[in-house]
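[step 3/7] inverse_fold.run input=structure_tokens len=434
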């Protein structure tokens, strides 16, 4: 029988653009075979690879001898690609990706997918992810599937049959698991502040990382919470198993939680398996502005690298290196702002390695403009910037900065506001701290 590398070589052509699920959804057997045998598979040409959130050690800068890396994220292990200057960033809102793929603006020639074993009707589930993968499947010339018995069979808008698959292989590796570390004091304080704003019946959206998990853990005394999120971690499974997450009061998709990708451990996979109360959906639905606006009490909780005194958010670049993504933060913050009773939240520790993350001027791009700023949360409190003037925003942001940085930030604030044509007229009593 031909080797996997030989079979890949018969299907993949020089110049092809390849896509696969990000993070936990990466089909490791296929991706590792691709990079190991890239010279033979590319047949003297080059291949383009779309890069999402990284959780494996599959990709390395040295592979740029054959592979051209493009994508929207440089998180985790993929930061080394950005540092080496071999990752070409697509600065797109996450909600735009499926449309860009279907239009052909972003080419998708070959899709590598990790799927569950088939159900009784012969349907392979995409398992841990939908996101932009259905759009890539619609455009792809070749679909190569890795069947993993540890991947849950999940409900969703898209499944595959044997007729949809050009090459099927058995998985040699378990799916990637994400086990979060215990939250530190700052994360616990931030989670407590946010929890104080979350009402019974709210629908949750979380970004990725320890902080959203800490927030979810602080919500076990709520009732009838709902889920409509891009990423979902173990904390959501815990809320559901505790009877807190019921989706009963959702204004749309009542009784069902909506997610784009499962980013957790075996516990999350076990909860998701054949669970009719969970559906994985494509980004064009999970991040659609009209869909989000129609969800009452949408509570969107996202993180940032830094926020300036007027509410501008940098979530992409730290110390001159691209480390984040435009992602879906703006999609969800705008959706939550339009939601009846919604809460658009950006949360971050006030400092990192002693430096303030509340700044007078961003060191990177504006990922979220100040016109979309809602609630900014640090361990020192909550700054509600909605409807506030520039000078009022500055005062509220100073109040949630680390105390040791406030005096210096206040001095910088006067110059900042002069540049904006405003004056610093805030008063200490207008902090908006909860």
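[step 3/7] decode complete -> sequence:
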């Amino acid at each position: 029988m031909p080797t996997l590398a030989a079979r890949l070589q018969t299907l993949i052509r020089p110049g092809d653009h390849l896509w696969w699920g990000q993070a936990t959804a990466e089909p490791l057997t296929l991706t590792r075979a691709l990079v190991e045998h890239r010279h033979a598979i590319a047949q003297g040409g080059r291949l383009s690879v779309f890069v999402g959130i990284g959780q494996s050690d599959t990709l390395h800068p040295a592979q740029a001898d054959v592979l051209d890396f493009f994508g929207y994220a440089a998180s985790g292990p993929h930061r080394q690609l950005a540092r080496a200057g071999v990752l070409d960033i697509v600065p797109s809102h996450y909600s735009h990706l499926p449309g860009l793929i279907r239009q052909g603006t972003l080419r998708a020639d070959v899709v590598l997918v990790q799927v569950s074993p088939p159900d009784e009707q012969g349907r392979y589930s995409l398992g841990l992810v939908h996101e932009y993968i259905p759009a890539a499947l619609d455009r792809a010339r070749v679909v190569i599937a890795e069947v993993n018995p540890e991947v849950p069979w999940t409900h969703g808008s898209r499944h595959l049959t044997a007729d949809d698959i050009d090459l099927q292989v058995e998985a040699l590796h378990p799916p990637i698991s994400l086990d979060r570390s215990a939250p530190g004091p700052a994360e616990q304080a931030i989670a407590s502040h946010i929890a104080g704003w979350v009402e019974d019946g709210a629908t949750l959206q979380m970004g990725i990382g320890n902080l959203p998990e800490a927030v979810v853990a602080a919500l076990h005394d709520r009732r009838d919470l709902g889920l409509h999120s891009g990423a979902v971690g173990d904390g959501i499974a815990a809320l559901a198993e505790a009877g807190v997450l019921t989706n009963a009061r959702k204004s749309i998709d009542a009784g069902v939680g909506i997610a784009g990708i499962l980013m957790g451990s075996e516990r999350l996979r076990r909860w998701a398996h054949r669970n009719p109360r969970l559906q994985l959906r494509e980004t064009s639905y999970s991040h659609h502005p009209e869909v989000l606006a129609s969800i009452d009490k949408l509570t969107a909780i996202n993180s940032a690298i830094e926020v300036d005194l007027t509410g501008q958010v940098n979530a992409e670049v730290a110390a001159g290196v691209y480390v984040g993504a435009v992602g879906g933060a703006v999609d969800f913050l705008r959706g939550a702002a339009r939601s009846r009773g919604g809460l658009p939240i950006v949360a971050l520790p006030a400092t990192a390695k002693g430096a303030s993350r509340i700044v007078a001027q961003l060191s990177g791009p504006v990922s979220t403009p100040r016109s979309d700023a809602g609630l900014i949360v640090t361990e020192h409190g909550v700054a509600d910037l909605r409807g506030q003037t520039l000078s009022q925003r500055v005062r509220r942001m100073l109040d949630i900065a680390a105390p040791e940085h406030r005096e210096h930030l206040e001095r910088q604030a006067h110059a900042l506001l002069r540049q904006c044509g405003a004056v610093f007229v805030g008063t200490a009593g207008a902090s908006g701290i909860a």
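[step 4/7] annotate
The two ends are 66 Å apart (CA to CA).
The chain is about 30% helix and 20% strand.
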